[in-house]
Specification:
single chain; 13 helices; alpha/beta
Length: 426
């Protein structure tokens, strides 16, 4: 089975590139291989690579594509459009078992939002809009079980799901910080310490997941990427460590045997035989690669002329999408969000059960978060067509994960309130 092939550079609105650099022969080899199935865990573009998946479909039009059944049909619909029909998409309910060749597969839909917004993972809350967009895959073959927990936030939910999943021989999971902190926060003075703290936290969660599943083996993966274009200068301050460093951090935290494999590597779960450990490329490879991607142009940089009046109207409308989800938060945290490009802005205030959306910088609380972005990006994010409810690349989360915003905070921070920003423009 092929899981989440990502070979197209420029994920998350153009900024994410693969690291280490991908040998062009690798995707060619992937396309020439006859896979029994392709499993796509979720919508994020470093997992659901539309361009490469389209190539896979053209190369092997009868290969089924497996997705989890979510409250929203966005992933299924998007894959079906690429595949030329939903008959090629296999949609699985949580814990439903399917045989793919001689491999058994179960998936579990899990929540990616703060629990105060999303409820619990099992059973899923009845309100469909509260459910997450990610999934965990559990594979069985030859008497062995291995679990692909993919993204970092999913790893945190594994202990909650452990009893339902059962013990595993191998757990694979994310180990770093794939977000804007600390590199997009100019006021964070010691970014190295902040990044290290985030990595330690992520590794502790992965180790706890391994122990909860009584995993014999733990393979950290899907934790490395690099920023290109005009964001290249942020790379040294990200909460990202090399795979070999992650192995060292994880080993004292878990009962499982922690290991890595080189790109295109393998491990035999029966014999224990595996290929060589991962070794981080030297700085000269990194420097040459950064030179090659630092000139990348992001999609929103190609935007057409901006209508100032329309932009202000769109700003207010987009901000109201945040307030529409206010009832989902079980918190009394008063806070304000100021969103803009440095010239124009909109402010969203939450005070108890009351809220307001005001054009300009007009915070009415002492807990304030400023989010600044390029004008073209602001225009891009606010232009969702009226009534459109599907997934779009012009989404707040895509820009946030892609490090396209500059952040500043004062007062107290509340994660539940912050999560509402994902509904900007919705």
């Amino acid at each position: 089975m092929l899981c989440d092939p990502w070979f197209t550079p420029g994920a998350f609105l153009g900024s994410w590139f693969q690291w280490p650099p991908v040998d062009p022969e690798v995707p060619r080899g992937i396309l020439e291989t006859k896979w029994d199935a392709i499993y796509i865990t979720h919508l994020h573009p470093d997992h659901f690579d539309r361009v490469f998946l389209s190539k896979c479909i053209r190369a092997h039009p009868t290969t089924p594509i497996v997705v989890a059944k979510y409250a929203h049909p966005w992933l299924r619909s998007a894959v079906a459009r690429l595949a030329g029909g939903s008959h090629k998409v296999v949609e699985l309910d949580s814990f439903e078992v399917i045989a793919i060749g001689d491999i058994g597969l179960r998936v579990v839909v899990t929540d990616v939002c703060d629990p105060r917004i999303c409820g619990v993972s099992i059973p899923c809350v009845p309100q469909g809009w509260r459910r997450g967009i990610d999934s965990v895959g559990i594979f069985t073959a030859d008497g062995k079980t291995f679990c692909n927990a993919n993204d970092g936030l999913m790893v945190a939910y594994i202990p909650r799901l452990a009893k339902a999943i059962g013990s595993v021989d191998l757990l694979m999971g994310h180990y770093g910080g794939a977000g804007p902190f600390p590199q997009c926060f100019p006021d964070v003075e010691d970014k190295a310490a902040a990044g290290q703290s985030l990595v330690e936290s992520a590794c502790s969660k992965l180790a706890a997941a391994a122990d909860a599943l009584d995993a014999q083996l733990l393979m950290p993966f899907a934790g490395q990427y690099i920023l290109g274009g005009h964001l290249s200068g942020l790379n040294d301050t990200r909460a990202v460590v090399s795979l070999d460093r992650a192995v060292d951090i994880l080993r004292p935290k878990t009962r499982a045997e922690v290991f890595s494999v080189e790109p295109l590597g393998h491990i035999d779960l029966n014999s224990g035989e595996k290929s060589c450990d991962y070794v981080e490329p030297d700085r000269s490879v990194l420097s040459e690669y950064l030179d090659s991607i630092s000139g990348a142009v992001f999609p929103y940089d190609r935007s057409a002329d901006i209508d100032e009046t329309e932009l202000e109207e769109n700003l207010v409308r987009a901000a109201r999408g945040i307030t529409l989800r206010m009832q989902a938060i079980e918190t009394n945290h008063d806070c304000s969000f100021i969103i803009g490009d440095g010239t124009r802005a909109v402010t969203v205030n939450f005070e108890g059960d009351l809220h307001s959306v005001l054009l300009g910088e007009d915070a009415t609380t002492s807990n304030v978060t400023w989010i600044k972005m390029p004008t073209n990006l602001l225009w891009h994010l606010t232009r969702r067509k009226a009534g459109y409810k599907g997934f779009t690349s012009a989404h707040w989360n895509q820009a946030e994960v892609g490090s396209h915003f500059v952040w500043k905070r004062s007062g107290e921070y509340d994660g539940g309130a912050h999560a509402l920003l994902n509904f900007f423009g919705a």
